[in-house]
Amino acid sequence: MEEKCLCQPxxxxxxxxxxxxxxxxxxxxTGVKLTQNGMGKFFCLAGIGGHVSGMIxxxxxxxxxxxxxxxxxxxxxxTLEHAGFNIDEYALVTDLxxxxxxxxxxxxxxxxxxxDFVASLISKRGEL
Amino acid sequence: xxxEILGMGCVNCNKLYQNVLEAVKQSGKEAEVTKVExxxxxxxxxxxxxxxxxxxxxxxxxxxVPKVEEIKGWIQ
Lengths: 128, 76
Fold this sequence. Notes:
The complex is a heterodimer of chains A (128) and B (76). Helix content of chain A is 44%, strand content 13%. Chain A is of the alpha/beta class. In chain A, α1 packs across α5 (108-127). Chain A contains 5 helices and 4 strands. Chain A has one domain (12-98, 106-127). The model of chain A has no long low-confidence stretch (mean pLDDT 92). Chain B has 76 residues and is an alpha+beta fold. In chain B, α1 (11-27) packs across α3 (68-75). The longest helix of chain B is centred in the N-terminal third of the chain and has 17 residues, at 11-27. The mean pLDDT of chain B is 94. Chain A binds chain B through residues 3-10, 41, 43-44, 47, 52-62, and chain B through 7-8, 10, 12-13, 39, 42, 45-52, 58-64.
C-alpha cells in the first residue's frame, strides 16, 4: 500500500448511511464514487457512532461535512448531529425519486443520479 | 502518563512534538512522550488526518497543531 502523508487536511468529508437497503447502499456507493472522483473523502459514520476519538477529532478538522441518507429515517444525519456536528450539505436518496426496497442489486443509473446530485451540492458550495 | 504524537514527520508534526515537550516541561508532569510515524499504527487510531495528539490512548486533537497552553490543559 502506498504510504500517503495525512498532514494535508481533508476538506470535504462524506458520510453515507450505508444502511441495509437499496437506498442505503446507493448512498454508500455514492460516497465511493465521489471519493474516487476526487470530490471529497469517504469517512466512517460507524466511527462517529462508536465515539472513536480518532474519527471524531479527524472530523473536527474537516472543512465541510456532507451526509447522505438513503431514507427518511436519517441515520447519518442523526448520528452526526448526536455527536455535535453541523451538516453542511445533505442528500436524501428517496427524495430523488428512488423507492426504498431490500434488493441489494443496485441499478448503476440510480447511483449515477445520486452521485451527480451530491456532486452538484458540493460544487455549488465551493462557488460561494 | 503516555503521550504520543502521530504523524509522518512533516513540519506540523515536529511543531506539535516541540509544543508537547514544552507543555510537559511547564506543567511539571511526568510523561513518556513518543513520536509515532508508522502509518499502520496511525491508522489504528481511526485517524484520517494528522498531526494528532494521543494522551493515554485517547485522541485529543487531529489535523492541527494545538498551542502549548491548550496541551497543558489536557495534561494537568
